[in-house]
Design goal:
Number of strands: 11
Helix content: 25-40%
Number of helices: 9
Largest sheet: 6 strands, mixed
CATH architecture of the largest domain: 3-Layer(aba) Sandwich
Strand order of the largest sheet: 2-1-3-10-4-11
CATH superfamily of the largest domain: Periplasmic binding protein-like II
Shape: globular
CATH class of the largest domain: Alpha Beta
Strand content: 15-25%
Distance between the termini: 47 Å
Order of helices and strands: EHEHEHEEEHEHEHEEHHEH
CATH topology of the largest domain: D-Maltodextrin-Binding Protein, domain 2
Low-confidence stretches: none
């Protein structure tokens, strides 16, 4: 493989990942930015090999992104993110018969939460609930550690949370806003039984990460090809829709501060 080729890492959380990256690889080739990709089964291995310099760029979850930033003393390069990665939110959803009318009512109740490495289904909802004054030591937890290593990408643990509410195993649950909206749209949520009580403050989601020593030419070619994708170009739109965005955005770090705080001060579970 030529040294000019950008080697990108992504996690294979769904079969569509192959279709997405094969399409983006062809787009990069058309833009004069040779690129190839490597698929990983988990983000821990992807971060490890990025830090060792075995791949040039990693498409990371917020948890993986913050870990890269921390392990490079904030010297890593953030290259871009989706429009849908900005101002992401999670929700606290409750059973209508749970008696939960305010956040403090969670105390003494059973709260279903997603995977321990899911930013949107566990880490940040619990962090924000604690900030709101909920005594988490007084909450009973029903934990769904589904697909650990994929950082909540599959959404499986969030589906488990909603099922636990539907069958009465839990009084309340934490899910990402995207899953909540999609599951309602698909008719999978009985809105007479389950309702949204509270929405978290916004936070940011995925990011393209690279090491500070990455070749400047590769960086420039990567950005030019990435930001050259357009919603009004049919072959681009197909890939953008699969990846859940309309436009690639410049990076920003402000949306990860709450996650940094949450990782520095883990919540009791």
């Amino acid at each position: 493989m030529s040294d000019e080729t950008i080697l990108l890492g992504a996690v294979a959380y769904d079969a569509k990942v192959v279709t997405i990256w094969e399409g983006i690889r062809q787009h990069f080739q058309n833009e004069g930015a040779p690129m190839d990709f490597v698929l990983f089964s988990n983000y821990e291995r992807q971060v490890e090999l990025l830090l060792k310099g075995h791949i040039d760029v990693a498409w990371n979850t917020p948890l993986a992104h913050v870990r890269v930033r921390q392990q490079t003393d904030d010297r890593s390069l953030s290259l871009g993110m989706r429009d849908s990665d900005q101002d992401f939110r999670s929700r606290l959803v409750v059973r209508s018969d749970s008696g939960i009318a305010a956040l403090k009512d969670l105390e003494g109740k059973t709260l279903a939460v997603g995977s321990r490495d899911s930013t949107q289904a566990r880490i940040l909802p619990l962090h924000f609930l604690r900030q709101e004054g909920v005594d988490l030591e007084q909450v009973r937890f029903l934990k769904f550690d589904t697909d650990v290593g994929k950082h909540g990408d599959t959404g499986t643990s969030e589906i488990d949370v909603l099922e636990a509410l539907a069958n009465g195993r839990a009084d309340a649950g934490t899910v990402g806003d995207l899953i909540w909206v999609n599951e309602q749209s698909a008719g999978h949520v009985d809105t007479n039984l389950i309702r949204s009580l509270w929405t978290t403050p916004p936070f940011d989601h995925c990011m393209f990460d690279a090491l500070p020593g990455l070749d400047v030419g590769k960086i420039e070619r990567f950005k030019k090809a990435l930001f050259g994708m357009r919603w009004d170009v049919p072959e681009h739109r197909r890939l953008l829709e699969l990846e859940g965005l309309k436009v690639w955005m410049p990076p920003r770090e402000s949306g990860y501060e709450s996650l940094r705080e949450a990782l520095a001060n883990p919540t009791p579970e």
